[in-house]
Known about the structure:
An 8-stranded mixed beta sheet has the order 3-9-2-1-12-16-17-15, sandwiched between helices. A 4-stranded mixed beta sheet has the order 8-4-10-11. Strands 5-7-6 form a 3-stranded antiparallel beta sheet. It is built from 8 helices and 17 strands. The chain has helices at residues 19-38, 50-66, 75-100, 136-144, 182-190, 221-231, 263-271, 280-291; strands at 5-10, 42-47, 107-109, 113-116, 128-134, 148-151, 167-171, 176-179, 194-196, 203-208, 211-214, 236-241, 247-248, 256-257, 260-262, 298-303, 317-320. The longest helix has 26 residues, at 75-100.
Amino acid sequence: MKKKKIVIALGHDALGTTLPEQHEATKHTAKAVADFIRDDYEVVITHSNGPQVGMIHTAMSEFCRIYPEYTATPTAVCSAMSQGYIGYDLQNAIRTELLGRGIYKTVSTILTQVVVDPYDEAFYHPTKIIGRVMTEAEAEEEEKKGNHVTQVEGGYRRVVEEPGKGFRRIVSAPNPVSIVEIDAIKALLDADQVVIACGGGGIPVLAQDNKLQGASAVIEKDLAAGKLADTLDADRLVILTSVDKVCLNYGKEDEKPLDTMTVDEAKKYLAAGEFDEGTMAPKIEAAIDFIGDSAIRSVLITKLNKEGKTVSGGMGTLITK
Length: 321
């Protein structure tokens, strides 16, 4: 009998922020991942990288500020660094958990590039804040390089300093088009290995003839997870986030958690503005795109139990056709 295939998208809570937090968080995450492997699923894992890539970008920017003879580190390279940094802890934690259960499988992290469209509208409207806080003079220098800057808690491309505030770069968030290393991911899955891929939404690249050029952008991790699950023809996409269930009227007195939701309902709620743009909306969009017209595919959005208990039926919000 063919094994069911599952893509698990890990959010910030499943990884922590600092190095010690990440080291401990991945141990709990490994328990949930191992439960699916125990139940004989083919498992592919993807993950967020927000705090980690921000830390790397800030560290590399500060290094170049102190030592100007060194070349600045592009955003795409910082993304690649974050995939290795997070993948290292994840694959070791999962390997340890599996061996503790008597399960012998190789866990591999794939440095994954994701092609984006150079004409994506997002490139004309950058929104994602990255890197360190800069002075007005440093911000103006960034502008001269063609980089966009925004005031902290301020507006787009503003360079007028307000008391107590500085400036930071903003980059675009284009949609994922295709996954460059998808054949390698499929080959590892066919070999019954556990795969970690498309970390942080993948390293954004532009296809130029036979060359891939890193893009100064970040890809929404949930949309990349949906693209990965769709390309692999997975049976289920599990998105682990910071809430137990998807809610209507989130944060209000009449908040309503949802146990189930159809694709049509998800579209209706999304159009009505029920879900925040930077948090739940991309998860719902990924679910809609992944399920499409399939009567088989499903998406589970839930919170990882800190004790690492099984993520299964009865938990979270299950989205189906």
